[in-house]
Write a structure and sequence with these properties.
This protein is mostly helical. It is 77% helix and 0% strand. The radius of gyration is 18 Å and the shape is globular.
Length: 264
């Protein structure tokens, strides 16, 4: 009987470990062993664990914000360092996706042309302008949130941004092309599981900053990602890896903006 129990749990454990490896290896710059097998269940686990993986860059951002404040740094300086560190620890993956998505949406109404522009990888004027604007809003909003809520605001913003991934990868949302990261993870997450992770993340953000209003902040961030998702699926016919990154940045930005003004 013991042998039977071990055999039953083995595949599930392997899927969990592979999903965690895929999530950490994709969403952070940390060196981890590659997953032994990448199936749709593995991709689903990776996306569901995305908010937990977000604790890694989020905790680093909170730490640098705390250290900067302790050393007498201004809130804008600490916020800039925190946002920069998150970009470093994620290899700028989501920011790159945001820029490519902006360029693709601005290039033409032709789906194939837009996807080709996004695949090129270089940053055009629309992508550059979007990056500057989003980073400016993130740093400004985080600076105000740091003044009001402390370093935990940085952690909450990063974690809430990653909660967009299981939502964007919910079943029923197709991939825009048959290859790439988007095709690997698109439509893999059960909708109920995506909703549960989103709700738990919102409550967790409220616990981190000790403000019930942070639930609204996290849900606002997810709503911003949802608006972008609706736009990209109409234009592109589905999601790509770039769209995933863009939705993470949209959710992070929306969360930070509301955290900056959440009632004390």
């Amino acid at each position: 009987m013991t042998r039977s129990l071990i055999d039953t749990r083995g595949p599930a454990w392997d899927t969990l470990v592979d999903g965690l490896r895929l999530g950490v290896g994709t969403l952070t710059a940390l060196p981890v062993p590659p997953p032994r097998r990448v199936a749709r269940t593995t991709a689903a686990v990776a996306m569901l664990l995305a908010p937990l993986v977000g604790l890694i860059p989020g905790a680093a951002a909170a730490a640098v914000a705390w250290a900067g404040t302790a050393l007498g740094g201004s809130a804008p300086l600490c916020a800039g360092l925190a946002v920069g560190l998150v970009a470093l620890l994620t290899r700028g993956l989501h920011l790159d996706g945001l820029a490519d998505t902006a360029d693709g949406l601005a290039s033409a109404y032709d789906r194939d042309r837009a996807l080709a522009v996004m695949r090129r990888g270089d940053t055009g004027p629309s992508g550059a302008a979007t990056l500057v604007l989003v980073l400016l809003v993130q740093v400004t909003a985080l600076a105000q949130a740091l003044d009001r809520l402390g370093p935990a605001a940085a952690l909450a913003g990063v974690v809430a941004g990653r909660a967009a991934l299981p939502v964007v990868c919910a079943r029923g949302i197709p991939a825009a092309r048959p290859d790439g990261l988007g095709a690997t993870v698109a439509g893999t997450v059960p909708r109920q599981a995506a909703a549960l992770v989103a709700g738990l993340t919102a409550v967790g953000c409220a616990a981190l900053v000790h403000r019930p209003g942070a639930v609204v902040a996290a849900l606002t961030g997810l709503a911003a990602a949802g608006v972008l998702l609706a736009r990209t699926t109409r234009r592109l016919g589905g999601v790509t890896g770039d769209v995933l990154g863009a939705c993470v940045e949209a959710a992070t930005t929306g969360t930070l903006v509301v955290l900056a003004v959440v009632p004390a």
